[in-house]
Task: structure prediction
Amino acid sequence: MAMIQIREALRQAMQEEMRRDESIFLMGEEVAHYNGAYKVSQGMLEEFGEDRVVDTPISENGFAGLGIGAAMVGMRPIIEFMTWNFSLVAYDQIVNSAAKIYQMSGGQYSVPIVFRGPNGPAENLGSQHSTSVESLFAHFPGLKVVTFATAYDAKGLLKAAIRDPNPVVFLESEMTYGIKGEVPDEEYIIELGKADIKRSGTDVTLITWGKQLFTVQKAAESLMAQGIDVEIVDLRSLRPLDHETVFNSVVKTGRAVVIHEGFIFAGVGAELVSRIQEACFDVLQAPVLRVTNRDVPQPYATNLEKLVYPSEDRIIAAVQQVMER
Amino acid sequence: MSQSESLPAKSSLPEISATELTALYRGMLLIRRVEELAAKAYTQRKILGFCHLYIGQESVAVGAAVSTKDDYWMAAYREHGHAMAKGVSPKAMMAELFGRATGCSKGQGGSMHIFDKAHKFMGGYGIVGGHVPLATGVAWAIKQRKEGRVAVVFFGDGATHQGAFFEALCLAQLYKLPVVFICENNFYAMGTPLHRQSAVTSLKFRADGVGMVSEQFEGFDVEVVRERVAAASDFARAGKGPVLLEIVTYRHRGHSMSDPAKYRPDGELDEKKKSDPLAITKARLTDDFGLVDADFEAITDDVEAEAQAAWTFAHDSPIPDPATLYDFTYAPTEA
Result:
């Protein structure tokens, strides 16, 4: 076991896979000579050369499409968006090309490609650099949508995403690239579509993904001190969705709160709440609540910004509310 | 790479023979006849949804295929002609239009999404301009793997105002990718004529902003298309970079089967029909290669039989099994 930063875990995943498979290349803005806007790809140009670690112009629609075309004929591109905010000018490529080509071609052309980069808000970046895009991509059959909180999950999931024969939207966080975690020395892969119970408990199920796991874990400490035994389900994959793990947990606890960044309206949390009430109606002791971003574009000012995200206090209040029933 | 560079005046192809030109004529006639049958099937509601006909533009796809038979092709939603020119069987294509399990895309695609991997026909696409970047990716793979092939991508005049098109040109030129971009300028983006789409009506100039070699020519004569696309594919294949060809053409039908094309000025269609690709090549075969009426009758009969066989095959084929509904969403993950 080594303690490494999440950016290193992601880099190791790409390096190991690129050493194993020559058809993999990394392409995006500033990934090569600049060593990555967030240094995820540091040193990779030196190891793999300019044909496999490729700088692009600021042209997301173009290079996302380039990656998809290359994937159709057997390459395995990793397309980095400097942030997922910028992916929206490539939305047509991901949604109308990558997600649909396997289907449109009657299964003749698969699209083994990973789109990756930081998702969601960082700090004080204003509304155009703070978008959480998961619901925009999880909506579409044909895409897989994967995210993580820990260094261990980052590496194992990215390796699985690179090996997957389908387009994978891989969501990272600018705020957590420097967070360290334990990663085994030996190779491992984490199967896509498997949630992970980050803490076992009996009273209430907290369902989350991405860096909100850390907020949820802090809230859980306070709740435990209040005598509430929480179970934390880290989804890791939003599509495919591991509803079995979610349902089993809710059947055990009878209560659930979904915590995520992004907006409440038609967010992934809405899908979870709907599925939970369909499958677990008879065991639910309270309505399933959601703690999400406030329903406003992200303001810049620090005090307003902090009001927008899920917070420990809001999570604790929601849990207390479902426990009162 | 300078913007003033031009393609060589002569391609690597040999002079055309009577046999070859006859085959090209037959190829164009087959597209014409299959599409006429498709139009009939559409009016009978055997073909549904959108159906965009290529009639009038056949010389472009057929001429382009001569030098790029084993290369990768992508086209937009008016792609029946490109598919057949590339070798897709009329039966498999017609069955796709009919929404049958035997269709080349298994009934999943329809008229706008014809795919045939065996013939490197990588699809028709329905988002105008959206497929142009995909071709740069195919060319990226070709270059990395030193395949010696080119990617050929077809699109209309309407696509040249899309960002995706321009981004694809930028990337292809930056990385010197082996792509032949073929803009089929048929003067109408759906119902909007070119002069109301673009301040610059010579679309080859779109290439100048990225430093790409380009050429504009009329594409009604299949021999001209054959020769100039060969010059472009020679250039791209040799690693000299991508090329933008603006091939001036004209569609005889409306944008789709539901468009009566009333926006055309009176007399324009009749005038353009004088340069019908079939008429031009028929005259050339008659005047310079000695074909006679009996030769053309034999070709017509042969084409008619093949087109009718496609209809019959499509008509008699089974519809997709409902049990296959979920089979084409995700490629199976290896164990």
